[in-house]
Amino acid sequence: MTGKMTKFTGSIAKYMVLTIGVVVVIFPLYIAVVNSLKSNADMNRLSPLQLPLHPDWQNYVTAWTGGALGSAFVNTFIIIVLAVIGNIFFGTMVAYVLGRFNFPLKKVIMGAYLVAMFIPTMTVQVAIFGIIKNIGLFDTRYAMVLLYLGTNVVQIYIYMQFIKRIPISLDESAMLDGASYFRIYRSIIFPLLAPASATVAILQTIAIYNDLYSPYLYMPSTNLGVVSTALLRFQGPYSAQWNLIMAASVIIAIPLLLIYLFLQRYIFAGIVNGAVRE
Amino acid sequence: MNFHVSYKAQRRLLIIGFLIIPLVLLVTFSLYPAIKLILYSFTSWNGLSTSYPWVGLHNYMEIFKNPALFGVFLHNLSYFVGGLVQNVIALGLALLLSKKVKVRNGFRSVLFIPYMLNAVAVVYIFQFMYQDNGALNTILRAVGLGGLAADWIGNNHVINWALAFVSLWEYFPFNMVIYLAAIQSIPEDMYEAALLDGASGWQTLWYVTLPNLRAIIQVNLLLTVSGALEAFNIPFIMTNSAPAAATFLTQTMNVAFVFNNYGLASAMAIVLLVIVVLVISIQRKIVGGGDDVV
Question: What is the ipTM of this complex?
Answer without folding.
Answer: 0.92
